[in-house]
Specification:
Helicase, Ruva Protein, domain 3, 16% strand, 5-stranded parallel sheet, 2 domains, Rossmann fold, two-stranded antiparallel ribbon
């Protein structure tokens, strides 16, 4: 090898080392800021650390989140707090059976100016924000639910044949009540697939419920404080996509997702208990979520443990049990746990 070639290889190695060092520095800096955001949220939301982390992973990955929980578990408060802490323009829409698509997207109205000329003017709906809370999304009709499809996937909406771009970043946090299903409309599979993660919200433990009780029944109101801006969040989302992912993690994601499909699995129980499995968007969502979880923890690269930890929230709303599974009492959570055993 000539001296010139050796010198070129050395420069390439130095450049790669400098790039890795810069990336690590960016990840550590972001980790410190995310830690501050966690603390700011924790002063308002009690006993829901896993829920907060799951929501932050979704936002860092640039996706949308489906929050499942009974009433009174601070789902609305969580979205409001996230809007303040992350410096986002947050809006809330209460989904009801009589809600129309125009109530979300906006509409065109006919106006007449001083010269007597008439024209249409577009009045934006509440979807034109950066953090949209779709409260009890399954209470709206399928027609209204589908109004969010284009917004969630393309970050723009079409009204009267004209496209209107949504603000950046744009995220939907939708809530569902798991116990009160009368008068609801199940979300179609195509819309469920647009949610990067489903986060189940349980009851807080005794200590957290006590802290919440003491903090919310006095005349002192604790308000969230901003720690990030919308530019910070968008920079963090770009950083997440720069995080390297090892071959073992990629293989674990592909194995997990493909074994969850009855058509491509080698597990007999999956063919018996799964009607339809996760599509390619599940692989993409799982990869982004693993990267975001690593950044959230201040790590430079995700591991197979991240894949296993995120398998249930990323896959559970992208799969459907068969009649046999329902008859046998087999849940989707148990099915996904069986899948993770094959990659653990």
């Amino acid at each position: 090898m000539s001296p010139a070639t050796e010198s070129s290889d050395a420069r390439t190695a130095d450049a790669a080392f400098d790039a890795d060092a810069a990336l690590l520095e960016d990840v550590e800096r972001l980790g410190d800021r995310i830690k501050a955001a966690r603390q700011a949220i924790g002063r308002v939301i009690f006993g829901q650390a896993d829920v907060v982390d799951g929501t932050l992973v979704t936002l860092l990955a640039g996706g949308h989140c489906l929050l499942i929980g009974v009433p009174g578990l601070a789902k609305t408060r969580l979205v409001q707090t996230l809007g303040v802490v992350l410096g986002l323009d947050a809006k809330r829409v209460q989904f009801t059976p009589d809600l129309m698509p125009a109530d979300i997207l906006g509409s065109e109205v006919l106006e007449q100016n001083e010269a007597g000329r008439r024209g249409f003017r577009f009045i934006p709906g509440p979807v034109f924000c950066q953090l949209l809370m779709a409260d009890e999304i399954n209470r709206a009709s399928p027609r209204t639910q589908s109004a969010l499809l284009q917004a969630m996937q393309e970050h723009k909406v079409s009204v009267a044949g004209h496209y209107h771009d949504l603000p950046a970043p744009f995220h939907v946090l939708a809530t569902q009540n798991p116990i009160e299903q009368e008068g609801t409309y199940p979300l179609p599979e195509a819309q469920l697939d647009r949610f990067l993660m489903q986060v189940d919200i349980g009851y807080p433990d005794r200590a957290a419920e006590r802290a919440m009780l003491e903090a919310t029944t006095t005349d002192r109101v604790v308000e969230p404080e901003p720690t990030l801006s919308q530019d910070d969040l968008m920079a963090a989302q770009r950083l997440v996509r720069r995080v390297p992912m090892g071959e073992s993690v990629i293989e674990a994601i592909l194995t997990l997702v493909r074994k969850g499909r009855p058509e491509t699995t080698d597990l007999p129980e999956i063919r018996a208990h799964v009607a339809w499995g996760p599509g390619p968007r599940a692989s993409q969502s799982l990869a982004l979520a693993c990267r975001a979880r690593a950044v959230l923890d201040g790590r430079l690269a995700p591991s197979v443990d991240d894949v296993i930890a995120l398998a249930r929230p990323v896959l559970i709303h992208r799969m459907a049990p068969t009649f046999t599974a329902r008859a046998d009492g087999v849940t989707l959570g148990e099915i996904i746990d069986r899948l993770t055993e094959s990659v653990g």
